[in-house]
Amino acid sequence: MTSTAKKVNLLGLSQDDLEQFLVARGEKPFRARQIMQWVYQRGVDDFDAMTDLSKKLRSELKQGAEIVPPPVQTRHDSKDGCVKWLFSGGSGQAVETVFIPEADRGTLCISSQVGCALDCSFCATGAQGFNRNLSSAEIIGQVRHAIRELPSRSNGESAVTNVVFMGMGEPLANYRNVVPVLELLVSDWSYGMSRRRVTLSTSGIVPHIHKLADDCNVALAVSLHAPNDELRDQIVPINRLHPIATLLEACWAYAAKRSNRFITFEYVMLRGVNDSLLHAKQLAKLLQGKPAKVNLIPFNPFPGTEFKRSSAETIRHFQDSLRHSGLVATTRKTRGDDIDAACGQLAGRVSDRVKKRLGEKSFGQVVNGDKSIRMSSV
Ligand code: SAH
Ligand code: SF4
Fold first, then answer.
1. Are 133 and 181 spatial neighbours (Cβ–Cβ below 8 Å)?
2. CA-proximal residue: ligand 1, atom 12 (nearest)
3. Is 53 a residue whose pLDDT tops 80?
4. How remote is the CA of residue 237 from the centroid of ligand 1, in Å?
5. Is the pLDDT of residue 71 over 70?
6. pLDDT in tens, 147-172
7. Claim to verify: residue 257 and residue 197 sit in the same structural domain
8. What is the residue range of 30's domain?
9. Cα dihedral across residues 220, 223, 227, 228: positive or negative
10. Which CATH number belongs to the domain containing residue 51 in this structure?
11. Same-domain check for residues 95 and 133
């Protein structure tokens, strides 16, 4: 009789969980390391191909387990070498992943949620509202797919040398599924990336920044975007729950646990909103003398937005001002323009979205990573 029990998707399981799965079946924990090497390093889906496992284990795995990546819907190649994939999130939903090649690295920008509940006023994903968290399999599956599809670098290294959580969604609002992915990215049995080459970007869910420092302290980028609470409350609404002072305190505590490695502060340049020299001075005052660098992001417009990008000259002056104050400041180059792959333009496809405007209570649920997240309808 064939078993109707649901198979366990091994993709995205942490090493601990995979070991437990195997030990529960009378196997030795080290088998987990072998399976991880097959699944991630060699990109194998088929248990029969895992030839260093016993025939008995392979047949048990076939019965009780599976490797199921998220289905790919489309791939677009940009003239500048960027690649954008649309992955199905089920029920007509989709999320996006973008590969950005540069001379010295290949960066993969991945998504962590279908939509986003945090409703930053200048973000296409936020404008769509939130639908659901991606599973660990759906998140690591984006990396695995890109690595399998892209040719290796000329030095034989994998095409993907860096991973950034800067696609759709707020990774710290999907904490329980994101942490196993971080662990897999840095594990020697999986992709073995250095923690410096994995960057989690957050709009500032403070309790989870503290927790991440202990759980998996990869590089941190923080979407600051405004140098005072009055303005940040407006454009990054999570600030009403976690204001700048508490956010920065969490950042410095995080940096201290990583031998004071720099934290990147992202700052989207919005014309006439946050781009004056006064703003630059306020920003410098917040970050001076701290392990901080600033990355200015020219605003990327999307249909329906009221915001405009600051002029190149304004951005240059803003950057110069920060530098004069002794800060390290860079401006992000916009890539993948012709395929709408730039920062903040990722919209994927979110249907059945949960109403995007939030009340205090809903923020609490976001912060707690409540699986059955519900937003108040406004
Ligand atoms: N939710 C996380 C990560 C995804 S967004 C976060 O907010 O940090 C990645 C970066 O793109 C963030 O810094 C975000 O503020 C920025 N961004 C969002 N919309 C943008 C837009 N339209 N133009 C430029 N950057 C944008
Ligand atoms: Fe969400 Fe980040 Fe967009 Fe804000 S900027 S709405 S946190 S994805």
1. no
2. 223
3. yes
4. 13
5. yes
6. 999 999 988 899 999 999 999 999 99
7. yes
8. 8-66
9. negative
10. 1.10.150.530
11. yes
| Pairing verdict, β 106-109 and 162-165 | parallel
In a domain, 3, yes or no: no
Kindly give the number of the ligand 2 atom that is closest to the alpha carbon of 173: 7
pTM of the model as a whole: 0.92
Rounded to 5°, the CA angle 22-195-134 comes to 60
Per-residue model confidence as pLDDT tens digits over 219-275: 999 999 999 999 999 999 999 999 999 999 999 999 999 888 999 999 999 999 999
Atom of ligand 2 nearest to the CA of 113: 8
Considering the domain architecture, whether residues 296 and 164 belong to the same structural domain is answered as yes
pLDDT band at 337 (very low <50, low <70, confident <90, very high): confident
pLDDT beyond 60 at 378 = no
Q: How far is the CA of 158 from the centre of ligand 1 (A)?
A: 26
Pocket residue to mutate for ligand 1, from 100, 109, 120, most atoms within 8 A of Cβ: 120
CA distance 292 to 287: 6
d(CA 216, CA 309): 35
Known catalytic residues are 96, 343
Q: Are residues 221 and 76 in the same domain?
A: yes
Distance 332 CA to ligand 1 centre (A): 12
Q: What number does the ligand 2 atom closest to the CA of 236 have?
A: 4
Amino acid at 350: V
The total of structural domains in the chain comes to 2
